[in-house]
Design goal:
heterodimer; B: Four Helix Bundle (Hemerythrin (Met), subunit A); Nonspecific Lipid-transfer Protein, Chain A; 14 helices
């Protein structure tokens, strides 16, 4: 998962982009290309496969071009570049999904509802990535241990060198933050199923 | 965040239960608590609406967690993204055309290193090069080393170019050989660098040093070349001394791009990753550099008694010429003067014709194939063909 962003790097990068340094653009892509591409892929997930240029590539291009054309639109004082790019990717993907729908408008209310659900789910997924990327590293590490490494909270506490109370608190707080990605109203379907349970 | 603190029903004991079980909701949603705790939470949820509500939201949040997508990023996407950006807003400080293959190749190697797991850094890497003085007519030599040392090798030799641009010596050594940075050739610098390593350098450490330097060289060259037309020409032609020979900066950048690709492919082979050749536009420039170096290399080999003596042509007549035809990606035609690097070449009359694939030619120039074994179509003067193929292999170094 994401590292905490060195804001000095962000500031210098923004200045170099303003200056019109093509070499900076390459460095920017090398650092954030994989992030933008994977967010775009996830946001457009299952919706790709149209003819012509890969929509994920298209979104990736648009996001970098947006920053290169208007580097002053990113203000380092307002947050890390990583978050700005993640947000720009989400918006670009959303625009893309909507414009695709306007290309072939839904024929029935059910189709319209499904299409809207898709946009909402994609946008929740991208927001979730954004939240995970910008939450405090201590919370992210706890989620990482519990979810990806399948540790229970006691093992996680030991690994993190904190009390069990603290491990429980971090897991709950991390998920609470993440849950703000889900819009109110008809909920996006969870992407992973399986009932919660216990582990020994 | 935990704003829904409406009082649960019941006694003080139940309130205590509520407090404890509520704190478990995150662990419960992630299936990261014991069976007993899980059962207790679930029993509680039936009685406590605020907790049930939160439990539902947290479960939904778990659904949004996912492993970081580890998609193989299409290596051509970088150039397409950069191109579309530069089309929309022209750069004030462009990357000189001759530096773009280096920029692209270093980026590809960096992406490979980023994808490699910690233990893959310990994979043994096989380096090969052609030793002209090896047994008989020369042979492909081999040496096994580590990924970190290969990156150290690139760092040390790239340092020659960095120094030519006025950047500090990357080895952090004031003077590794008791000579100025540019006096030590590539091999000497690499050996010196490896000797200074008391231990195997950490993957992160050496990758960061190397990457920082590649960024700094591209950046510095870009600024130097964008000050004006005269400065652009001066920068491109600035001599870079490799010890035994000198290249203009524009060619030194191509040379470094070629070596970066060669060693990236060595590393990829060691860890069984696929690794594509450079884009065909870049490959064409790398092939061109190697082809342009052939006449001088033949002359050097001749002085060392490794190539056939020249045939003197009458004054003003073109000397003997070999037609080198490179096919496929990055291909083209080159006419190699055989008797003297300065001799005029004839595009119509040549004593021999060699045809080979662009990638095969690069393999030969990288010293990965024995010249006699190169898959090349040959026609004409056998001695001339032999001299050109051996000269191509002699371009390789460690």
């Amino acid at each position: 998962m994401a590292n905490d962003t060195p804001t000095r790097w962000d500031r210098k990068m923004q200045q170099r982009l303003v200056r019109g340094e093509a070499a900076a653009l390459g460095e920017l892509y090398d650092r954030f290309g994989p992030l933008v591409h994977s967010l775009a892929h996830r946001a457009l997930g299952g919706a790709g496969g149209s003819f012509g240029e890969d929509p994920v590539d298209r979104v990736t291009k648009d996001v970098f071009a947006q920053l290169w054309e208007h580097p002053e639109a990113y203000d380092p004082r307002h947050g890390p570049l990583r978050s700005w790019l993640a947000d720009a990717t989400r918006q670009a993907a959303e625009r893309r999904l909507r414009s695709r729908q306007s290309g072939s408008p839904p024929r029935t209310p059910l189709e319209a509802e499904r299409a809207e659900q898709k946009v909402r789910a994609a946008s929740a997924a991208a927001r979730a990535d954004y939240i995970v990327g910008s939450m405090p590293a201590s919370l992210r590490a706890a989620l990482e241990l519990a979810y990806f490494q399948r540790q229970d909270y006691r093992q996680a506490a030991r690994r993190l060198g904190v009390t069990e109370d603290e491990a429980r608190r971090r897991l709950r707080l991390g998920l609470q933050l993440l849950s703000t990605a889900v819009p109110e109203g008809p909920a996006a379907p969870p992407r992973r199923d399986g009932a919660p349970g216990q582990r020994r | 965040m935990s704003g829904r603190e409406s009082a649960p029903p019941g006694s003080g004991a139940e309130w205590e239960d509520h407090r404890v079980l509520k704190s478990l909701l995150g662990a419960w949603a992630l299936a990261a608590c014991s069976a007993e705790e899980s059962a207790a939470v679930e029993a509680h949820l039936l009685r406590c609406a605020p907790c049930a509500d939160e439990a539902h939201r947290l479960r939904e949040a778990v659904g949004l967690l996912h492993p970081e997508d580890n998609l193989d990023l299409d290596p051509t996407l970088r150039s397409r993204v950069l191109e579309s950006c530069l089309d929309r807003r022209a750069p004030r400080v462009p990357v000189p055309e001759w530096a773009t293959p280096y920029d692209a190749e270093t980026s590809r190697l960096d992406a490979l290193l980023r994808d490699m797991a910690e233990d893959e850094w310990r994979a043994p890497v096989r380096l090969r090069w052609f030793d002209a003085r090896g047994s008989g007519r020369g042979r492909v030599e081999e040496r096994e080393t580590s990924v970190a040392r290969v990156i150290g090798h690139l760092l040390a030799v790239d340092g020659i170019v960095a120094a030519a641009l006025g950047l500090p010596d990357p080895l952090g050594l004031p003077d590794p050989l008791g000579l100025p940075a540019d006096a030590g050739g590539p091999v000497a610098r690499t050996e010196a660098y490896w000797r200074t390593l008391a231990r195997e350098p950490g993957p992160r450490e050496v990758r960061d040093l190397w990457r920082e330097q590649t960024h700094a060289t591209v950046r510095t060259a870009s600024f130097a070349a964008s000050e004006g037309p005269d400065e652009a020409a001066e920068t491109a032609e600035r001599p870079v001394s490799y010890g035994g020979f000198t290249l203009p900066l524009r060619d030194a950048f191509l040379d470094r791009a070629f070596e970066c690709w060669t060693h990236a492919a060595d590393i990829a082979e060691a860890v069984a990753y696929p690794y594509d050749p450079p884009s065909s536009a870049h490959l064409a420039r790398l092939v061109d550099l190697a082809a342009r170096q052939l006449p001088a290399t033949i002359a050097v080999r001749r002085r060392e008694g490794l190539a056939a003596p020249p045939r003197l042509a009458p004054a003003d007549a073109p000397g003997r010429t070999l037609h080198l035809e490179v096919e496929g990606s990055g291909g083209g035609d080159w006419y190699i003067p055989l008797d003297s690097p300065q001799a005029a070449v004839s595009h119509h009359e040549h004593v021999a014709h060699v045809a080979l694939d662009g990638l095969e030619f690069c393999q030969l120039a990288a010293g990965h194939v024995q010249p006699e074994d190169a898959a090349a179509g040959q026609d004409g003067d056998r001695e001339a063909i032999r001299d050109v193929l051996f000269a191509a292999a002699s371009l390789s170094r460690l």
